[in-house]
Design goal:
heterodimer; A: mainly alpha; two-stranded antiparallel sheet; 11 helices; globular; B: mainly alpha; 2 domains; ABC_transp_permease (chain A)
Amino acid sequence: MQFLVDTLLNAAMASAATALVSIGLALIFGVMRIENFAHGELYMVGAYVTWYVTAGLGLNYFAGLAGAVAVTALIGAFMEVALFRRLRSNPVGCLIVTVGVLLVLQTAMVWLFGINSTLLVDTPFPGVLKLGAVNLPWHRLFVIFAAIAVMGALSWLLRGTRFGWAIRAAAQDREAASLQGISIGRIAVYAIMLSAGLAGAAGSLMAPLVRISPFMGQPIIITAFIVVIMGGIGSIEGAIIASVVYSTFYTFVSAYIDSTIAIIAGLCIMLGVLIFMPSGLLGKAEKV
Amino acid sequence: MTFAKALPVTSATLAIALAALIPTVFGDYYTSFCTEIAITVLMLSSYRIIVLTGEWSFAHVVLQGVGAYTAAILAKGYGWPFPLTLPAGALMAATVAAVLSYPLLRMKGFYFLMGSFGAAEAIRLLWRKIPFFGGTRGLSNIRPPYLDLAGIEIDFGDPGNFFYLTLAIVVCCLFLMWRIESARIGRIWRAVNQQDVLAQSVGIDSRSYRRLAFVVAAGFAGVAGVLLAYAFGSITPNRFNLNFALYLMIWSIVGGTRTFYGVVLGGIILLGFDEALRFAEELRPGVYGLLLIGVMLFCPQGLERIFVPLVERLRGPVSSASPDPSVTETQQ
């Protein structure tokens, strides 16, 4: 019973973290048509910043969360202004530059904190919630609710505000949007800050639960790409649905069978989706 | 023969002659390193065949792995000699590529990139999982070839001898690739990349030609894999991971994919650079990252951008034999 509940909780938590990372990825693709390979590294930077602010500076966990979002959003803005903007006419160039950023961020963290760092972030919610025979760790519940809250806020931002309309308009048709007086350059900066901040938030939320290492971004970016492709590149709803489906499937298969088999099965599902629905599950859905 | 025509032949001969001196000039360590460079150059030039058709693939290193595993299993388990494992590895890699190409080449661009990654990673994880392939530890103790030609015995366990063997095979492969590329099929590959719709409208089935490129490239990658298995004496699934695939991509981009020698030069320069950075193993990826960003921003066609005008000037006025830059420029 406890094992099943643990697995379910882990699945929900993995879904939440994957969704936060992959909606950022879908958002940036929707608006700028860039596949950001460095997105997983922003997640990693988020975790490191949280550690630094809480353990290094001795501040509250929530200050760490805010710091993680701020730092990753700034890195995102820098990427857009210094790199992507200059390579606008060269989509493959953008993709390759994100690989460069990935390597630089990884190396920077190795250089600053070492390869085998044993960094621990204390959770603001220690202890477990006892419900009859099962135990639910508070922080895991917090991650799930925080992710849902962030996604709700994002949905309101995109659908209920002028800023959100501008982003969606830019994603749908860049030229028409700029004819309506929307500054594509400014929207691109905001969109990438939003996207990077989401990855940073996910890294910060997961920091107390996972081993922080310079290479922790790699598995999550691979999962996020699988999810984004399954959901249909650029579709945020698709990314969320695919996150839940894939993470639940993956967690259950790795808990009950084997984690390598879970990855292989996940990759085969992705290939299957690509073969039969080349634009993903919700590929034809409204972009962003 | 005009100077323009003689130049590639002369420079290639000179390069081969210089390369042949390596084992006598350097010690065993650097000779083995040069063997590695030769294998990587083969990998890069075969990768360029896919790039010619306008695609980037993550599966290429795993196809090299298919060649390596085939050779290792046949040599260790069934005692096949080197002259048989070499074509077997190439054939196996090409066959696997042909099978993979059916689902993968339904996609293009980024979807193809991710699809190739998915397929490659699935194969690599299977190697780790199945005991027949040696699991995570891979296969080791692959004996270097030993030749007995009517009394003349050559032991390729000696790094120098193995280097000559590798050099000979790599040069043959490069020559073959150069011939393929300058033949009609090479022009079709470029056409498929640059003007897909136009190419289709004149009756070229672009998907079959992209498939052909994928399979041919895999065959050469298989040869590189066989050489790799013998050069190191052991192979592990981790050797063919995403990082290696990324490096392959980085090397070809930094070198430049427009011309044949751009890739070759890029590979040699960057591997030398790699060796020079050995003292700072942990910082190496970051240096690569910065290099990649710099090249993309300031020299998007790669380092060959610097060499090409030089060679063109040496060649004099553009003859019909030399590639027209406006035609050969691969879309970035």
